[in-house]
Amino acid sequence: MTALPTAAGAVRPGSAAGRDTVTSGGDGPTDRHGAAGADPGPGAGDAAQVLDRCRALVRPALVEAVERLHPWVAEMAGYAFGWCEVGGAPVAAPGGKGVRQALAVLGAEAAGAPGRAGVPAAVAVELVHTFSLLHDDIMDGDTDRRRRPTVWKAYGTGPAVLAGDALFALAVETLAARPGGCGAVRALSVALGDLVRGQADDLLFADRPWTGPDRVRPDEYRVMAEHKTGALLGGAAALGAVLGGADAGTAEALDRAGRHLGIAFQIVDDVLGIWGDPRVTGKPVHGDLRERKKTYPVLVALDSPGGDRLAALLRTGDDPAAAAVLIEQAGGRTAALAEARRHITAVERSLAAVPLAPRPAAELRSLLAFLLRRDL
User: Model-level pTM greater than 0.90?
Assistant: First the structure.
C-alpha cells in the first residue's frame, strides 16, 4: 500500500502486519483518550513548540475570561480545561493541546500582525470548542475524556449543559467586545452553525440503514466531516487573520485550508479506528467496528460488490476482525487514504493561493501536519 505523504508522517510504513500504519491527531471533537509515550516523530518538536508558545500567549486571557463566569460554572470550565479537580483544587491534569487557539494566533501572524492580535479569536474559539466537547460527551454518553471523568459524569448532566451554554455565551461576549466585533461574531456563528449541522448528521447517520437507497453515501460523510471537524479549524485560522487585519481573500483561504484539514483528519481517524495500533491510538483494535460506526472506509466498502456480506456482519457486530478484512479487500482502506491525501493536497493549495508571512506560514504548515498525528 502507498503511504500517505505528509510532512509530519501521517502514515508510516512498517507495522507488525507489514502494512502502513496511520498516525493521526487528537484534540478534535473525538479526542477522548490519547496514547501515553507515543513517539512524536519527525517535525513534531517544532509543532509542539508552536503549541507551547501560543498557549502561553493565550492562557492569561482565557483564564481571565473564565473567571468572569459564575464561580460554580467557572469551576466546571476549569475542570474541562484541566486546571482543577472537582471542588476547585488546582491540578495539572491533561488538557487539550490548544490546536484551535494556536491556529487563531498563527492566522493573525500570517496576516502580518503580532500574535496578540489573534488572542481574542483564540479565546473565543477555545471556549466554543470546549462547549462543543461538553455537549458532545453528553450526546454520545462518553464517561471519559483525556483519562478523566467527563464533565457531565463528574458534575451531572444538567450542570454540564449549563457550563457549555455559559462557555458559548462567553465566546460571543469576547468577540463582541472587540472593534469590528459584529463581523467576528458572525464568522464564529457560521462556523458553529456548520459544527451543529455536522453533529446532527453524524447522530442521524447512526440510525440509517447499512444498505439500500437510504444508506449513508461517502459524499454525505465528507460534508459531515467538513462541518463537524473542519468548520472550527478553518474558523479559528480565519478569525485570527481577520483580527490581524487580513483581507477577505486571505481569511477565506485559511478557512478553506482548515476545512479540508478537518476532512483529512476525520478520515485518517477512521482508518485508525479500524486498523490503528492500540498502543499508539489508545483505542481497542477494531473499536469503531465494534461500535458499528459508519466511517469512511466502511461506507466505501459497502458500495462494493461484497457490500451485502459486510452489511450483515456490521448489523450484528459479532466479528469485527472479519469485517475489517472485508473492508480492506473491498478497497475501503486504500480509498480512505487516497481521499485523505486529496484533502491534504487541497490544504497546501489553499495556503499557497494567498500571500502569508513566511515564518508563521511555515509554523502553520507544521501545526496542520501535526494535527494528523495520534500523539497530540
Answer: no
